[in-house]
Amino acid sequence: MKVIDANVIIHGRGLNEELVTVPEVIEELNSGKALQGLNSFQVESRECSQDSLEKVREKSSEINAKTSDTDEKLLALALDLQKPVFTDDKELQNLSLHLDAEIEGFLDDIPDEKLSWEMKCTRCGEKASKCGCGATPERKLSQRSSV
Ligand SMILES: [Zn+2]
Questions:
Q1: Where do the CATH 3.40.50.1010 domains begin and end in the chain?
Q2: What does residue 116 show for φ and ψ, rounded to 5 degrees?
Q3: Would you state the pLDDT for residue 43?
Q4: Residue 138 phi, psi (nearest 5)
Q5: What average pLDDT does this structure show over 96-103?
């Protein structure tokens, strides 16, 4: 069993395994033109636990990940089920690595390092929380470690 994201559902024709996703992904697909892909194989829909979701959101804000709400629910579900996340989304893969969740790439290789960012002021270079000049902060790479 794998926890699958919308992109892999759309492009992953002919996948022959047990797949699960969160209801938000199914809704996303139903509102778009991807229904055809969804019909070509069976995807089960399950809610993630609040506990896991909180853990994921905490880590996401800690490292300044650019993950969507749906991505974070997918990862939370993967943690609940102890199954790999099946995605090519780099932000989601990176966040998964930080939470020791297993990841599987679909078309691309999975990253061999995990990244963290800080929000820093573009004018004075200080962390956004310490800056007094009010310029819009930018996301800057702060840490990179191999996995
Ligand atoms: Zn500043």
A1: 2-104
A2: -130, 155
A3: 87
A4: -125, 150
A5: 97
